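LAB NOTEBOOK - FOLDING QUEUE
OPERATOR: T.R.
BATCH SIZE: 2
PURPOSE: Compare the predicted structure-token outputs for two unrelated chains run back to back under identical settings.
PRIORITY: normal
REVIEWER: second-year student, initials M.K.

ITEM 1
FIELD SEQUENCE / FIELD STRUCTURE:
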Amino acid sequence: MLYSLARPLLFALDPETAHGVTLGIADIARATGLLGLALERVPARPVEAMGLEFPNPVGLAAGLDKNATHIDALAALGFGFIEVGTVTPRPQPGNPRPRLFRLTAAHALINRFGFNSVGLDEFLANIERSQWRGVLGINIGKNFDTPAERAAQDYATCLDRVHAAASYVAVNVSSPNTQGLRALQDKEALEALLGRLAGMREKLADRDGRRVPLALKVGPDLSDAQIGTIADAVRRFRFDALFATNTSMSREGVLGMRHAREEGGLSGAPIRERATKVLAAFAARLGREVTLIGVGGIDSGYDAAQRFAAGATLVQLYTGLIYCGPELIVECVKERRKRKR
């Protein structure tokens, strides 16, 4: 209710400015205790996945808190898990502004942030300062100027550094906003990358005294052959989870709208069907061998229920949260409860 009143004011601002203002307000509201008073309590719906215990199956997708500076406030909204990043080894500014666009009539966004990141040192310091101790995913990527042949080294550096702080680590090979990144979804490059990270698993587990699950985040613009290749690699290298999906390069559902021609990844309601089909295709190939997380176009409890029906154990929100507010978290959890009875 409160968010629906505030949304017109926030939407009057530039999208990236509104993003920062909203997170700043959330920080203040959490620190003063007002956030808890203003929100409906999220019901418990414990889920076990990736060897972890989640208080509920609805999480925050990577990208909203890229630099891990708002963890406590976002966790106070009632998410079952929070994913921060994408973090890159070295700081980088990302693409020039404007780089975030609303397509309000379609409940959609186009972003071309380009992995703007404070880098590993500051990112990990931000996590250390947070007080929340729930399930924290860390999403990792490569620097924009790292050549393709050295991309695996960037991911290895990130995994080594974030391992001790993460509940799980998500490997992002599907953002459309870093040149050449999606080529890492191709068979040879993907197998080399996943093989290298999987090879680090036991050494890092011994060093840090616990096994941290590894997950892969893929895009929605995949052919059946690509889905098969990725599923085989995930199974072969014993990755624990797969996120389906990232943003899309397609403009289906928004053609003719203002900003539809902007470069970047499309998220929100227009990719809902595409993301659900990709999720279902992975579920058909992987069954219960790998935890599947449904992402993309969820802006109602019904949408979340469709992902659970398609094979997801967990779901994540981002664009839907911007259009619908924190009430969406409660709605998705309640829908999950109803359908599990």
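ITEM 2
FIELD SEQUENCE / FIELD STRUCTURE:
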Amino acid sequence: MKTKNLAVSILVAVLVVALWWTMLLKPARSKVAKVKSDTGIQQQKLAPLQRQLSQARADAAHAAEFKAQLQSLQLAMPDSPALAAFLRDANGIADAAGVTWASVSHSAPVPGNGGVQSITVGLQVQGTYGQVVEYVSRLASLKRLLVVDSLQLATSTNAAAGGDTGQSSTGPFSGGNQLTATISARMFATPDAAAAAASTTSGTSAAPAASSSAPASSTATPSGG
């Protein structure tokens, strides 16, 4: 009898364990495994998002620097020829350097690669050797990008100086009390897409007329420097 009761107890215990395994432990372990799997998938998705967030924070931290660089580029190559602004700057540095700004000429914008327009500029100033060197240095430091293609120097005599060469210095040059510097350079503009498209459309018909006309030019009144 005791043996029978013991067998029944063992059987009941086995059934309880089986039910516990089937009804509780196995589903719980399955849920845990699913949760782990879902967590791994979400972690894989999270990694690129974290990288994007880090990049966005880095970009935001450098936003002011990027803005300053963009402004510098816009000043170097504006979206229009901005000739009036350039003439003011060229005259301003002539006064600062002490040279006499004799004349300036510029050609019409010529379309180039990537929608960049090239404008040929001719400048002529007079002054002592030191004044001319100062002017060229200031010209190179303009915010507007200017590529100097040629620089020609020639001596001349300033009538106002009464032929007294001792009052002026032409450095390694001789034969006069003044230097005349003739500069040929190029500056650039980057018009927007609409302006570039309009320029391209009208360029074919306008080209023959432009080729037969002289470049636009202006002559400045000597500043007395």
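REVIEWER COMMENT (ITEM 2): The longest strand covers residues 178-189.
FOLLOW-UP: none requested
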